[in-house]
């Protein structure tokens, strides 16, 4: 599937991110660092040029606040879509990551392995996330700025790069990041570039 050009942003750092708590469908306010990351994203978008681009955000507060900051004068153009929400974490929602690791150490054999997201009791799972993010992308009608969450961002990029859902663990993440996806190629945009 060929998609229009995409600029995919992850929300800025939140208080729960800083504390190591799993947010999933819950929410937490941006930290001062998170607001600064969103401001940096705004400068990147301004330099890139997004006139005529659609603007989308997850309805979750951390993403919506980041989107309003990052879109600057274009914030009134933002549309929300629940398909951009973060993967749900079921019983792990609100827990500290260290407590999840202690309860299920076999899921955390390597630091970079994110497959544990597929094992959250009562959680959404990777296949369901892949399906809803694909449905969102299939509905796009033009170049789009998308402000979302860490795992959701990775899954959107799997689609745009023609990767299987399991490849989400291999894609880079990071808060305050802007990824440009065009023609099956991903470029990480930064203020200095």
TrEMBL record:
Residue stretches spanning the membrane: none
Superkingdom, natural source: Bacteria
SMART domains recorded: PGAM (SM00855)
PANTHER family: ADENOSYLCOBALAMIN_ALPHA-RIBAZOLE PHOSPHATASE, BROAD-SPECIFICITY PHOSPHATASE YOR283W-RELATED
Protein name listed in UniProt: Histidine phosphatase family protein
Species assigned in the record: Tateyamaria armeniaca
């Amino acid at each position: 599937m060929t998609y229009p050009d995409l600029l995919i942003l992850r929300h800025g750092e939140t208080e729960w991110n800083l504390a190591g708590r799993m947010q999933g469908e819950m929410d937490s306010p941006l930290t001062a660092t998170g607001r600064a990351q969103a401001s940096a994203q705004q400068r990147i978008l301004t330099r890139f040029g997004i006139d005529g681009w659609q603007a989308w955000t997850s309805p979750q507060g951390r993403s919506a606040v980041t989107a309003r900051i990052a879109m600057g004068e274009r914030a009134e153009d933002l549309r929300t879509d629940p398909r951009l929400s973060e993967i749900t974490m079921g019983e792990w929602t609100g827990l500290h990551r260290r407590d999840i690791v202690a309860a299920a150490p076999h899921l955390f054999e390597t630091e970079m392995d994110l497959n544990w997201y597929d094992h959250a009791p009562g959680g959404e799972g990777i296949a369901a996330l892949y399906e809803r993010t694909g449905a969102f992308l299939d509905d796009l009608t033009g170049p789009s700025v998308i402000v979302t969450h860490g795992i959701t961002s990775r899954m959107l990029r799997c689609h745009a790069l023609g990767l299987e859902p399991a490849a989400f663990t291999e894609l880079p993440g990071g808060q305050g990041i802007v990824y440009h996806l065009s023609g099956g190629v991903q470029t990480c945009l930064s203020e200095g570039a």
